[in-house]
Amino acid sequence: MASADPAPGVSTAHFILYVADQAASTAFYARVLGTAPTLDVPGMTELTLGSGAVLGLMSEGGIRRLLGERLPDPSRARGIPRAELYLRVSDAGAYHARALAAGATELSALARRGWGDDVAYALDPDGHVIAFAQRGAGPA
Questions:
Q1: What is the distance between the alpha carbons of residues 20 and 59, in angstroms, rounded to a whole number?
Q2: What is the DSSP string of 50-73?
Q3: Closest Cα to residue 124, out of 25, 56, 35, 39?
Q4: What distance, in Å, lies between the first and last C-alpha atoms of the chain?
Q5: What percent of the chain is modeled with pLDDT above 90?
């Protein structure tokens, strides 16, 4: 059985989304998460999520410049969901509503899921799936 302890030697996890417009994505996530970036420089924005996690927003062109031609062009996959940002929050409905007001597309309204969380799903403006979850009373 896996331990609930953090991975040894890992102090922070950065989850980086490649985005078409760094400034627009920064404004979107700052509004949705209700926090200002902890880093916002050309090529990278970071928003601290808590518990040693950071959401990074990097321009598609920036990652291509950094890693070169060997990396497939992320812009070719724009709008195709390849990952999900699952955020356990205090009020999933409020976060979901803020995301929709900020320009996200609703995928699924807040509902109890089979694993026991109440979760709402949306697509951010770049097509990344965002799940806003809160602990429910038990399985659906």
A1: 6
A2: ETTEEEEEEEHHHHHHHHGGGS--
A3: 25
A4: 25
A5: 70
User: Has domain 13-135 been given CATH number 1.10.357.10?
Assistant: no
pTM of model > 0.85: yes
**Placement of tokens 């760094």 in the chain:** 22
CB atoms inside a 10 Å sphere around CB 36: 10
Residue with more model confidence, 50 or 122: 122
**Would you tell me how many other CB atoms lie within 10 Å of the CB of residue 135?**
10
Tokens of 40: 């916002």
Q: At what angle do helices 22-33 and 92-101 cross, to 10 degrees?
A: 150
| Cα 58 to Cα 101: distance, rounded to the nearest angstrom | 23
pLDDT score, position 3: 53
Q: Following DSSP, what letter does each residue of 3-45 receive, concatenated?
A: -SSPPTT---EEEEEEES-HHHHHHHHHHHHT---SEEETTEE
